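agent> fetching stored inputs for the (~{Z})-2-methylbut-2-enedioic acid docking request
agent> found them:
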Amino acid sequence: MIRLQRPLPERYTHASAAELAEWIGAAKRALGDRLLILGHHYQRDDVMRWADARGDSFGLSRIAATRRDAEFVVFCGVHFMAESADVLTADEQQVLLPDLNAGCSMADMADVDDVEDAWRDLAHVTDIARIVPITYMNSSAALKAFVGRHGGAVCTSSNARAVLRWALGSRDGEEPRADKVLFVPDQHLGRNTAYDLGYTADDMAVWDPRLELGGLGEEAVKSSSLLLWKGHCSVHQRFRPAHIADFRARHPDGIVVVHPECAHDVVDAADQVGSTDFIIRAVRDAPPGAVIGVGTEIHLVKRLDDESPDKTVVCLDPLVCPCSTMSRIDPMHLAWVLEGLVEGEVRNRITVDPQIAQWARVALERMLSIT
Ligand code: CIZ
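agent> prediction call returned; pasting tokens
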């Protein structure tokens, strides 16, 4: 997906770190409660220091929705997060993304047109009324709206288990809503959650949107309970079981915690698996002196280490893996957007078409009613 961020004026590109900090601080003071700056957990420190609230994508959108006095919500995250905030906030609140090129490669792997094509193909070979689409929070508003329109729900990495159970029924007698789920866009979250629920490899198939019928035979489509979209997170997919083996060799008593966007063999080798919030709690609850090897984005891992002086928190991948799109939000872009607001100009507003927002809200509310 191409989003064009116009080049910034030299005032920002030639400024020193100290000047940018001075301008951001002055703009924040001038805007007062009219402004809410949200910082995603993966955000770089020189931006995070200005955040009024930190959190994951869904948590931050909910904070924005409860802060009705905040006329301007500056989302220091990526594009789909700013869209979700726009969907969940009041009409009079304006959501801004400091750099329009801060996208999410995983979200971009599931273009809504491709998902609609897949849905049509599936309808030719199976009873489409018995398929529920589920999209991960990390997806465009248009895809969330598609899911809402077709009776499905959004899920986060914290509640994917509950949402899959809602769709497919639990194996202990709960009524299934469908025979099949189309899980988009992260195959790993879908697979890890399905294994956790007792499904086996035979129950799942990967849908490759570039191939006819997802690269699957009609029989495979019919017999699978889960069709997993061929998408992944470029950061989490880097972790390998060998990283865990190396960590364990160096720290035999260490604790390994990874995100469910990691591949299944990594999740299998870890001690604990969970969302960003889960990882934060796992570090907080670890005993003093613990060494914790974490499989997630490096800014979060470093921050956890800095903020836990009685523990050692290290990234499992020694070759550091930042979320490069998130890092596009830097002090230059933040200063540019904030000074625009002070001058009465709203730069980089993210708006979701009202029809799309309405259906995306249906999918989000369905998730909330399940969890
Ligand atoms: O939804 C989020 O913020 C992400 C990227 C992950 C998580 O586990 O919360």
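agent> quick read of the result: DSSP finds 17 helices and 13 strands in the chain.
agent> awaiting further instructions
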